[in-house]
Structures are given as C-alpha cells and as structure tokens.
Design a protein that fits this description.
mainly alpha
C-alpha cells in the first residue's frame, strides 16, 4: 500500500507545480492591475501609480514575483490582500466553512439520489423507469447552472414563498461560531428557530449545485452496472438461486463502484467551480463569492492563494480516490 501511495504522490507534485504557474499567470492576463482597480474611474497620477506598484512589489520581473509566491506558499504564507490588508489564508479560512457546508450537502444530495437512481435504471433497463431516470438525468445535466438557480428562486422563493432568496441565516439570529458550519452551530445554539432558518437557506443552493453531479452519477452508475450485470459471475450467481437484491447489492454494485467513485471524486472540482456561480446568485458568503470579488478588484494575492488552495483540495480528493481504489479492489495495488 505504501508503494501504491508513493506512486500516486509522484504524480501529484508536478501537478501542483503546474497549478502554481497557472494561478500566477492567469490573473495577470486580465487587463488592468490592482492599483487601477483601486483608483476606479477617477484615474491616478502616473507617478503615484508607479509608487504603489513598487509598494506592492508588482514592478519586479515576473519570474521574481513567481519565485517569491511559490517560496512563501511552500512555507504556508499566501500573502496579504491588497485591498483589506488581511492575510489571504485567514480570509480563506473564515469563508471556507460556508463553501464546505454547501459542497458537502450538494455531493450528499447527488450521491444519495443519483447512485440509487442509476442502479434502478440499470436493473429496469429498457422500461419506463429506465427512460424516465435517464431523461431526467439528461435534462439536469443540460441545464445551465445560473438558469436553474434563478428558476428555483423564482418558483420556490418568489412564487411559493417556501424558502429564503439568499444568505445563510435569517438576520434575527446570531448563533455562536463554534465550527463555522451553520447547520452545526445553529443546532448547538439555544436560539429557537435558528436551525430551521439555516436549513431553509441551504435547500435551494444545494439543489442548484447538486443537480449536475446528480445527473452525472446517475448516468455513470447505470452504465457501470449494466456492464457488470453482463459478467459471467453474475450469471453464475443467478444460476445458484441468489435473490436479485443480493446479486445487485453484494456482487454487482461493489464491482461497478470504481467508475462511480472516480466520477464522484471529479465532481468535487465541478462543485467548487459551480460554487462560484451558486454563491454569487444566492449571496452565499463562501470562497466562490470571495474570489469573484477579488478578480473584479485585481487582488492578486487573494486570487492566487484562493485558487491554489482550491486546486490543492481537488488534488487531495483525487489522491484519496486513488487510494480508495486500492481498498475497493486490492488487485489495483498489485498489478501483474
């Protein structure tokens, strides 16, 4: 298992280096600079502009700036925000619980509905149930996230009045920040109605963000299950008189699980990307909304540090998925 882990880790290191290059270069390809963004439409004197660039260290050669960025990042220092003058890591940690809570709820919603739906569609192949599940999955996968989110707001919040339009919690509540996860903090607090308010604020963002992963998991589960159900050992299990439920749950599902786990791991990156739009639409105070505001302000340290952490999280999740392969199927750890 250690050798298997080290091989996967060897792939992660060059990926991390490539990410640092991308996050450093992409923000600098956007027209303008932090000084111009801070000055707004009023403009700024060229001499003052050059002075501020020097104070921010942005007048140095790009290789020198990149080297300093990587060196500090390796030591846990992601810099200081040009606008707020707060450490980037501190601002990220303040906002990350909101994004983590939303992402976790979205992936749970997608997995708990998508995987059983895909299994059902595979077992009921070429029946109305199969066509219905695949039709709904295709529709869910095809809908643009921002359009789907706005539809949810218009129907459930505006038309029916069942859920709040935006935010994480009603303004009348102020639970103590113990974990940063609003569902947990409101559950632990003694404020009556706080947990219900947090839950109602979470419903629509979860539905919006989790729909595309749900459709993807459903389709992948169906495809993988159909392939496994054609195998000889499944026919042998049927010949031995095993019940259909035992065949599907014990024999077929575990062997169909590896492609599904792969897709679920990849969905973390999709969810973090979708969180940018979702948090903007629902005014959710997470890292997605934070990064969008930083891009508008050309706040280089925040964009670099925030994207680097997000990309590193995706890498770690995919590394964990690779290790999970070895647990699900030990033959992967010891290829012939």
């Amino acid at each position: 298992m250690l050798t298997f882990f080290l091989k996967r880790l060897a792939v992660v290191i060059p990926t991390f280096i490539g990410i640092t290059l991308l996050v450093f270069a992409l923000i600098r390809m956007v027209p303008g600079d932090p000084v111009e963004a801070l000055s707004g439409e009023r403009g700024i004197d060229p001499a003052r502009h050059a002075q501020l660039l020097h104070e921010f260290g942005l007048d140095r050669p790009l290789p020198a700036q990149y080297g300093e960025f990587v060196w500090k990042a390796l030591h846990g220092d992601l810099g200081v925000s040009i606008v707020s003058h707060e450490p980037v890591l501190s601002e990220f940690l303040d906002r990350f619980p909101a994004t983590f809570e939303l992402t976790l709820c979205a992936i749970l919603f997608a997995a708990l509905i998508g995987i059983p739906a895909g299994m059902l569609a595979a077992v009921k192949r070429n029946t109305p149930i199969d066509y219905g599940v695949m039709g709904v999955s295709l529709a869910g996968y095809s809908m643009p996230l921002f359009w789907w989110a706005l539809l949810l707001i218009l129907y459930f919040s505006v038309h029916l009045g069942w859920t709040p339009v935006s935010g994480r919690l009603g303004i009348e509540f102020d639970p103590p920040h113990v974990t940063g996860l609003m569902l947990v903090d409101t559950w632990l607090s003694d404020e009556e109605g706080a947990f219900r308010s947090a839950l109602s604020h979470l419903i629509l963002p979860t539905l919006a963000l989790g729909t595309i992963p749900l459709a993807t998991l459903a389709r992948m589960t169906r495809s993988s299950m159909l392939e496994v159900l054609r195998e000889d050992y499944i026919r042998a299990a049927r010949a031995r008189g095993l019940t259909p439920l035992r065949i599907v749950a014990k024999h077929a599902f575990r062997n169909a699980l590896i492609p599904v786990v792969t897709v679920a791991g990849l969905q973390v990156g999709v969810l973090l990307g979708g969180a940018v739009l979702t948090e903007t639409i629902f005014a959710w105070p997470g890292i997605g909304k934070w990064l969008i505001e930083a891009i508008h302000r050309r706040d280089y340290p925040i964009v670099q540090g925030g994207l680097l952490i997000c990309a590193s999280l995706v890498i770690l999740v995919n590394l964990a998925v690779d290790l999970l392969y070895g647990i699900i199927n030990p033959r992967i750890r010891h290829p012939r």
